[in-house]
Specification:
It is built from 2 helices and 24 strands. The protein is mainly β. The protein has an 8-stranded mixed sheet. It is globular.
Length: about 325
């Protein structure tokens, strides 16, 4: 039965670390895909036209950092590395990275994002784990114009396991390895900005468990492209699964689902799980034969255009775009050849 389940869900044993989420980002115009090379020595720029990317060696200030995450900015990239948030434009030759803010004490970052609207509009979000018992929060925000991250009370979630992804009026995130939807409410000024509220929409962490899965298998990345939600499921030892499902309707305050009790939660879970599609990843293996997916990211244009990209087997970059839903190979990471 376990062998059959693995075949159906496309699972296999993999290296003992979890897939990284946002070590890739599209430029704001969607023309360039930026990816941290697998050997963590360079940023790679793919334009979708040539298999060989343009490589930009990491500056000394960022070099050697294995937990780097990045998102696009209007004139460069925002990067978490070496316990700080940095801004760097690889295209501005010779320009050194600029420090924007220190990360919280004892914080292991594993996600980075930006809030487009609402009370936290313009804020930079980081999620991860905290080794500081005095600051146990797993979600923090850097507000526009500020120089220090402020914590966000996650209330009912022990850990934000995937940085929030946004669509107009919507926010989806990974909470305790499942999919959640919610929002933010301010609590006033101070070290803690406010709190995260929400509800579990799809318990996708139950898709697979394994005796060797020591860190927990579940949602590590979420990305919204058009009306579809993409989720990367990974664990400490297991390989990866790439899921898609419709983002669905937004619940209004009058809907029972907006503050679901047990019956509503079960209904939501059944409906969402019935819509989940699991991509076949059996051919997305690295040179050792292990299945591995990372660098999942998305881009949404102003006229309904969208793109999704991910790296498979530590090597091949794939893209899915509106009107071309079959994955297209757009290049290869030269550091893993």
């Amino acid at each position: 039965m376990r062998t059959l389940l693995r075949l159906v869900l496309g699972l296999s044993m993999s290296f003992p670390f979890a897939a990284r989420a946002s070590q890739a980002t599209f430029s704001e115009d969607g023309k360039t895909l930026w990816v941290l090379s697998f050997d963590h020595k360079a940023l790679l720029a793919f334009d979708g036209k040539a298999p060989a990317p343009v490589s930009f060696p990491l500056p000394v200030a960022l070099a050697g950092e294995s937990t780097m995450d990045l998102i696009s900015d209007h004139d460069g990239l925002l990067i978490t590395a070496v316990d700080k948030l940095w801004k760097w434009n690889p295209l501005a030759g010779g320009t050194a990275p600029e420090t924007l803010a220190p990360l919280p004490p004892g914080f292991y970052n594993c996600g980075l994002g930006r809030v487009p609207e609402g009370p936290l509009a313009g804020a930079i979000l980081i999620n991860g784990r905290s080794g500081d018992p005095l600051h146990p929060e797993t979600l923090h925000a850097l507000l526009p114009g500020e120089k220090q991250f402020r914590s966000i009370n996650t209330r009912y979630i022990h850990q934000v396991t995937a940085a929030p992804a946004f669509a107009p009026g919507r926010m989806v995130l990974g909470g305790d390895y499942d999919l959640w939807e919610g929002g933010f409410t301010p609590m006033g000024n101070g070290e803690r900005w406010g709190y995260l509220w929400g509800y579990r929409t799809a318990p996708v962490a139950q898709i697979a468990t394994d005796i060797g899965n020591g860190e927990g298998r579940g949602v590590r990345t979420v990305a919204i492209a058009g009306d579809t939600l993409w989720a990367l499921i990974a664990g400490h030892h297991n390989g990866c699964s790439l899921l898609t499902l419709p983002i669905g309707k937004k619940f209004t305050a009058a809907d029972p689902e907006s503050t679901p009790g047990v019956p509503q939660s079960l209904k939501i879970s059944r409906e969402k799980l019935a819509q989940v599609k699991i991509m076949n990843v059996s051919d997305m293996v690295d040179r050792h034969g292990f299945e591995f997916i990372d660098c999942l990211c998305s881009w949404n244009g102003g006229n309904g255009e969208w793109k999704v990209a991910y790296r498979a087997g530590h090597r091949v970059l794939w893209q899915v775009a509106n009107g071309h839903e079959t994955p297209k190979k757009i290049g290869v990471d030269p550091s893993e050849n």
